[in-house]
Amino acid sequence: FNISFSGKEIPVTSKLLDCKITYMTGRECVLIQADLLLFAEYNLEPCEDPGIPQFGSRIGFNFGVGDILTFSCSSGYRLEGASEVICLGGGRRVWSAPLPRCVAECGASTTNNEGILLSPNYPLNYENNHECIYSIQLTIKLWCSFSLQFLAFDTEASHDILRVWDGPPENEMLLKEISGSLIPEGIHSTLNIVTIQFDTDFYISKSGFAIQFSTTACRDPGVPMNGTRNGDGREPGDTVIFQCDPGYELQGDERITCIQVENRYFWQPNPPVCIAPCGGNLTGSSGFILSPNFPHPYPHSRDCDWTINVNSDYVISLAFISIEPNYDFLYIYDGPDNNSPLIGSFQDSKLPERIESSSNTMHLKENRGGIDLFGVFFSIYSESN
């Protein structure tokens, strides 16, 4: 006779003679001794392969009863559904939950140091009439800022607009406003918070954007007013170089380096500034002279002296480009100091258009009258035979 049963264990049966036992769907156990059954282990039928979510991944490739599969999504996508499923036993093999989905949402908030932000439904077309807000914020490394690099960008030009804010939008620090199909250049924040706002209208929709963000260890050192900067790196060991526009002097070192000390990141030394100095010695075939703090008001009750030296075979030609009304006098000497012959003393609009020296040296002295008014002179000198 045949005995059929189910379960993980074969019940103890004694003194079954000449019997044949069928366990589930095929493995046979044959009685070879009156009080002992020898049997082989039977593998239960597995669950079906559930698949892998689009834009996601799966850990686990065994589908037997009790096996567990774990799902996750690529950066920028959110898992919708169960992250773990178990193959259940019983009369019918099924997973404990359906296959989850990986979705790109309208808006997101993250405190990660790096990641990817995606437009809704990316890489499929985004939906119309949406306002999506994405927020990136570091709550620990307050001295850090962010770098945003565009991996893909395609929106309806002038209608579906992406705005990037330095900090929250209420700060009104708009870094960039973008639309169209050209991939924008990278964006660097100065704060530890970045807000991205994506507005779509009612008409055409496109594939949208993919933005990679990461922290930059040192803050943006900026570009000095009246100067330039060479270099954009902000990681430890990165170096940037500064220089000033003609007529300005660099106050500080021209080269600074991003330094990391434990969990602190900073520039060493501090970023420099460009100032128009009160006086100085100028050499070379041409150059500029600016009143102190140009183009802003200069300090009053302070005298400034400039000496210009050119090649001994040349003389100096001085032309005034700009002069504002003030109570200061400018004295110009034909020689190296104020003991040299006086070419003239000038005030306000009484300055001549052009002055020439008789030698290769000229001395300028601005005498401040103590009245804090806005006064600027701006001149250029050049050698002339």
What does it look like?
- It contains no helices and 34 strands.
- The strands form 9 sheets. Strands 11-13-18-15-16 form a 5-stranded mixed β-sheet, with no helix packed on it. Strands 26-28-33-30-31 form a 5-stranded mixed β-sheet, with no helix packed on it.
- The relative contact order is 0.09.
- About 10% of the residues have low confidence.
- With 385 residues, the protein is mostly beta strands.
The CATH class of the largest domain is Mainly Beta
SSE class:
mainly beta
- Tell me what portion of residues adopts beta-strand conformation: over 45%
Contiguous uncertain segments of 5+ residues: 12-41, 370-376
Distance N terminus to C terminus? 128 Å
| CATH-defined architecture of the largest domain | Sandwich
Number-wise, the strands total: 34
How are the strands of the largest sheet arranged? 11-13-18-15-16
| Total tally of structural domains | 5
- Gyration radius, in Å: 39 Å
Helix content: under 10%
CATH level 3 topology of the largest domain: Jelly Rolls
Number of helices: 0
| Largest sheet geometry | 5 strands, mixed
Shape: elongated
**Mean pLDDT over the residues:** 81
Walk me through the topology.
Blueprint: E1 2-5, E2 20-23, E3 27-33, E4 36-38, E5 56-59, E6 68-73, E7 78-80, E8 84-88, E9 94-95, E10 101-103, E11 108-110, E12 114-118, E13 131-137, E14 145-154, E15 161-166, E16 174-178, E17 187-188, E18 193-199, E19 208-216, E20 227-230, E21 239-244, E22 249-251, E23 255-261, E24 264-268, E25 273-275, E26 280-283, E27 286-290, E28 304-309, E29 315-323, E30 329-333, E31 342-346, E32 354-356, E33 361-367, E34 377-384
Domain Sushi: 45-104, 216-276
InterPro entries: CUB_dom, SEZ6_CSMD_C4BPB_Regulators, Sperma_CUB_dom_sf, Sushi/SCR/CCP_sf, Sushi_SCR_CCP_dom
Pfam family, one: CUB
